[in-house]
Design goal:
Blueprint: H1 3-13, E1 28-34, E2 42-43, E3 49-51, E4 73-74, E5 77-78, H2 79-87, E6 92-95, E7 119-121, E8 127-129, H3 135-145, E9 148-153, H4 160-171, H5 177-184, E10 195-198, H6 211-223, E11 234-241, H7 245-255, E12 262-269, H8 287-314, E13 321-329, H9 348-363, E14 368-373, E15 384-387, E16 390-393, H10 395-403, E17 409-412, E18 414-415, E19 420-423, E20 426-429, E21 431-437, E22 443-449, E23 456-461, E24 470-475, E25 495-496, E26 500-503, E27 506-511, E28 515-521
Parallel strand pairs: 1-23, 3-6, 3-14, 6-9, 9-10, 10-11, 11-12, 12-13, 13-14
Antiparallel strand pairs: 1-18, 2-17, 4-5, 7-8, 15-16, 17-21, 19-20, 21-22, 22-28, 23-27, 24-25, 24-28, 26-27
This protein binds alpha-L-arabinofuranose.
Residues 53, 97-99, 200-201, 326, 374-375, 380 line the site of alpha-L-arabinofuranose.
Length: 522
């Protein structure tokens, strides 16, 4: 357990001391030390992966639009979205689901679009899809984004042969019927897709399997998931639901670390904490729902710690990646929208959750080497929302913009004791953070102050780091429930951060309430 994690856990467990609340608006001083990482670890860029499912208006009506829509397009791919996502350097994009993946038959989505059969999206709103967005269109989108494709194979309702054919279609260069078909469909060269999820949520919508049964099914599918020249596969086990430690235990034991590159985990933050009844409103919430959302989001740290400890038992060398390939805030849908489309607004609160979660992943980078926010466009905690021609970037998008400096940078552990943010007799750590050094030697510290009323003053020591200047960027707003609208898309946006300065060899900074700040020291 890192010092940061240990101290954060202490703060979570401690009872609330009477009178411990600082005066509103007062600033508490935190002593923070940026330590040299030993041994050296990288923060994988894949922690900042995204997810695009055939769900609501993520693909159809999101990335993939009607020819008549008056927006910049390449074919039917919406280029204003592509431009926005290119700026944040999306490292991988997971597709086609989610629950949808275990109903998807890839062969229906290749060949002349007019001849592709239609399909009912039974998981998400029973919409009729025409399969016009299929494998080639997804690969074209990944090419435009400059991102790694991460495919989820259909294990729930597909066959081993179907998955194996998809791999051959994408990755082989021999004169087989699959390759001839790919060439006929316009792509002579192999696509080289190496990231393959073997099923999705196999404990639930992917087939309601037991971990024992799934382990055998995985081994069968993985046996026929072949490496083709130049494309060694990253075979990924469909992992646990939240804190279901038994799923991870059984998969690690029965499948064994040698047969997998990665193992996944899904955890969503529900404001109310309950799947039944209301999950909580996306906007217009009070401090009670703000606090409980953060408390539930912070559980990610304990959940990752628990699964990582089980993985350590079977994989001491930490070869297997833990991929949190679905995470994010899940609220009630926007009033008046299709409940099956999972369309929700996105507030400063969600941005604070994003910053906090990415800090947690960075601080677990010895094991967490991939993650996918759910989802990229118009679904759940989206980066981008669209309304016909209009498009906006959510506060969560801006957090990914800030944090891209950590991609493949060297991890620097932090040591500090967080003050509390207390509400309704409970408390959580107000401050969370992570740090890294990039390949040019610049140090970046990402800081989140969850306290909606009180600033935090930081005195930061950086033994072994020589630096002269500090700059930074900040995300905040007047209220944690503020959001961007199609009429005011820049209501919440990044600003220069002026609250940091060099004091001797220390960094002094004041972190405003409810803010995400990333500073750069050079
Ligand atoms: O992201 C929405 C859904 O959440 C996914 O389809 C599924 O995997 C998860 O339950």
């Amino acid at each position: 357990m890192s010092v940061f994690r240990f101290l954060a856990a202490l703060a979570l467990a401690a009872p609330l001391a009477a009178g411990a609340q600082p005066q509103e608006g007062a600033s508490q001083t935190v002593q923070l030390t940026v330590q040299p990482g030993a041994p050296k670890l990288l923060i994988s860029k894949h922690i900042q992966g995204q997810f695009a499912e055939h769900l609501g208006r993520c693909i159809y009506g999101g990335f993939w639009v009607e020819p008549s829509l008056n927006v910049p397009k390449q074919g039917r791919i919406r280029m204003d979205i592509v431009e926005a996502l290119r700026k944040i350097h999306v490292p991988n994009l997971r597709w086609p689901g989610g629950c949808f993946a275990d109903t998807y038959h890839w062969h229906d989505g290749v060949g002349p679009a007019a001849q592709r059969p239609k399909m009912l999206n039974l998981w998400w709103g029973n919409t009729l899809e025409d399969n016009s967005f299929g494998t080639h269109e997804f690969m074209e989108l990944c090419g435009l984004l400059g991102t790694e494709p991460y495919l989820a194979a259909n294990v729930g309702s597909g066959t081993v042969q179907e998955m194996s054919n998809w791999m051959e279609y994408l990755n082989s260069n021999e004169d087989t019927p699959m390759v001839q078909e790919r060439k006929k469909n316009g792509h002579p060269e192999p696509y080289h897709v190496s990231w393959w999820g073997i099923g999705n949520e196999s404990w639930g919508c992917g087939g309601n399997m037991t971990p024992e049964y799934y382990s055998d099914v995985y081994k069968r599918y993985a046996t026929f998931a072949h490496d083709y020249p130049g494309t060694p596969l990253k075979r990924i086990v469909s992992g646990a639901n939240g804190d279901d430690a038994n799923w991870t235990e059984v998969c690690m034991k029965n499948i064994g670390p040698g047969r997998m590159w990665g193992l996944t985990l899904h955890y969503y933050t529900l404001p109310t904490g309950s799947w039944s009844g209301s999950k909580g409103k996306a906007t217009g919430f009070g401090e009670d729902m703000y606090f409980s959302t953060l408390r539930n989001a912070l559980k990610m740290d304990a959940i990752v710690t628990r699964h990582a400890a089980i993985m350590d038992k079977y994989d001491k060398a930490k070869k297997v990646a833990l991929l949190v390939d679905e995470w994010g805030v899940w609220t009630d849908v926007e009033p008046g929208t299709n409940p099956g489309f999972l369309y929700q607004q996105n507030t400063l609160r969600d941005a604070l959750v994003a910053g906090t979660t990415l800090n947690i992943f960075n601080n677990h980078c010895d094991r967490v080497r991939g993650a996918n926010l759910a989802q990229a466009v118009n679904v759940l905690q989206a980066l981008v929302l669209t309304d016909k021609e209009k498009m906006l970037l959510t506060p969560t998008y801006h957090v990914f913009d800030l944090y891209q400096v950590h991609q493949d940078a060297e991890y620097l552990p932090l040591q500090f004791q967080s003050p509390d943010y207390a509400f309704g007799g409970e408390k959580i750590p107000a401050l969370n953070a992570s740090a890294s050094k990039d390949k040019n030697g610049a140090v970046h510290i990402s800081l989140v102050n969850l306290d909606p009323k009180n600033a935090l003053t930081l005195e930061t020591a950086l033994p072994g780091v020589s630096w002269k200047t500090v700059t930074g960027r900040l995300l905040t707003s007047a209220s944690v429930s503020d959001y961007n609208t199609f009429d005011k898309p820049n209501n919440i946006k990044l600003a220069d951060f002026k609250g940091a300065k060099k004091k001797g060899d220390k960094l002094a900074l004041t972190l405003p309430p409810k803010s995400v700040v990333v500073v750069e020291l050079k």
